[in-house]
Specification:
This protein has 14 helices and 2 strands. The chain is mainly alpha-helical. It has 2 domains: 9-290, no CATH class; 310-415. A two-stranded antiparallel ribbon has the order 1-2. Strand 1 and strand 2 form a beta hairpin. The longest helix has 28 residues, at 140-167. The N and C termini lie far apart (55 Å). Mean pLDDT is 83; it is low at 1-14, 260-265, 297-302 and 309-319.
Length: 417
């Protein structure tokens, strides 16, 4: 995309194009923001302890305020635009997860439904505006259509990505290659004559599962086939790159002015590719530097020991493989919590069960694709145990019963091996 003349901010009276130019840094920020959005929501729900319901409510409220601010502006503001994208990523993911995990809707169904909803949004948008190009988001109505489409693309990308990596059991490593390859194929098709607007929206949907698979590849433990950076380090790394690239874009906008309708920002293609390469190189370099060394291959890979558990570190090396892999570290935590509850120390049980929640959440991307139905069975039992132990006030009998049911689920899964 070439640069055109820019309009000085003081002389601008029109409603200006409200989205950035489609450049290499645009796509890099988009992919990285996907992982940031998903990880941050999980951090609030699990690590901070807000829970799914509170986190969903908070994210919806923050998104509403941010979208309102975005719609009130009359020009492209990089930091506000990308903050909105991150929040839309979070909420779009939460919508899909709600249908899948809470309502039990099949990923096949949710993927098809979101695809239809997106088609409806595009149809109405086209009939009223005669364009779907993001180079012409230059009226309030077009911008509303744009953000509605973006929200649905994130929900569709989440559902489609989960369908491929979980329901079809492809896993996050194959997911990186699959969705990266599809984006590359879309780029080649565009070069061969595919409609540019169609190519953009296809790639936009595909970047959601690509970003999620890439994030899982970096965060998951070596035992699960990841690089073992962890969610916190990966999120900090991605956030740092995003902040640098968005700050640069904000500086360019402040220095050169804002776009008139149909104009592109004054971005040198070579410099943009260079900045995108630097950002991607930083991610790769830091990941390679911080990734823990690959352990010697074992007869059977097992999940990493959970924090705060001496029992987990000394767990017997026996064959406890289930369809989800080795559940022994999770079983150790359940036994620890049950021991505290049986002694009447419900406070200690509530503290220890947090380790189970974090460990289970961290392992989801790696073990869920192996057997989604078994994962949901154990996930439901874990949720019941969390609810009982964290009740106000907690009941010793209810907590013990929920933990006993969870223990039976683990034993049943181990017997399915």
């Amino acid at each position: 995309m070439t640069a055109d003349t820019l309009t000085p901010r003081a002389a601008t009276t029109d409603f200006l194009n409200k989205v950035p130019a489609i450049t290499a840094t645009f796509w890099l920020i988009k992919i990285l923001s996907t992982t940031i959005g998903e990880t941050f929501a999980d951090y609030l729900a699990v690590n901070v302890g807000l829970g799914t319901a509170v986190t969903d409510g908070v994210m919806f409220a923050v998104l509403a305020l941010t979208v309102f601010a975005q719609l009130r502006t009359r020009s492209y503001t990089p930091w506000l635009y990308w903050l909105t994208v991150v929040l839309v990523s979070i909420v779009g993911t939460q919508i899909t997860d709600f249908f899948t995990d809470q309502l039990g809707v099949s990923l096949y169904v949710s993927t098809a439904v979101f695809a239809v909803v997106l088609a409806v949004v595009f149809t109405i948008w086209w009939r009223q505006e005669r364009t779907l190009a993001i180079t012409a988001i230059d009226s309030p109505r077009r911008e509303r259509f744009y953000w509605a489409a973006v929200l649905v693309t994130f929900a569709l990308g989440t559902a489609g990505g989960d369908l491929a990596t979980e329901a079809l059991s492809l896993g996050f490593r194959v997911g990186v290659l699959l969705f990266g390859g599809l984006i590359l194929a879309t780029w080649v098709a565009k070069k061969l004559g595919m409609n540019a607007v169609l190519a953009f929206w296809i790639a936009y949907v595909l970047t959601r599962p690509l970003g999620a698979s890439l994030g899982d590849l970096l965060t998951q433990d070596r035992a699960y086939g990841g690089l073992g950076l962890g969610a916190s380090v990966t999120s900090l790394l991605f956030l740092t790159v995003i902040v640098v690239l968005v700050a640069r874009e904000q500086v360019l906008v402040n220095r050169h002015g804002i776009r008139s309708k149909g104009d592109a920002p004054a971005v040198s293609p070579r410099r943009d590719y260079a900045w995108a390469a630097i950002g991607a190189g930083a991610v790769i370099g830091v990941a390679a530097l911080l990734a823990p060394p690959l352990a010697a291959p074992a007869a059977e890979a097992s999940p990493p020991a959970t924090p705060g558990s001496s029992a987990a570190a000394s767990a017997p090396a026996k064959d406890t493989t289930s369809p989800l892999g080795n559940l022994q570290p999770f079983s150790v935590i359940v036994d620890d919590v049950a021991a505290s509850v049986n002694k009447g120390d419900l406070a200690a049980g509530r503290t220890r069960i947090k380790d189970l929640e974090v460990a289970w959440d961290d392992a989801e991307a790696a073990i869920k694709p192996a057997s989604p139905s078994d994962w949901h069975t154990m996930d439901s039992a874990i949720d019941d145990a969390l609810t009982a132990v964290r009740a106000t006030p907690p009941s010793k009998a209810d907590s013990a019963a929920a933990l006993s049911r969870l223990r039976r689920v683990i034993v049943t899964l181990e017997q399915k091996k």
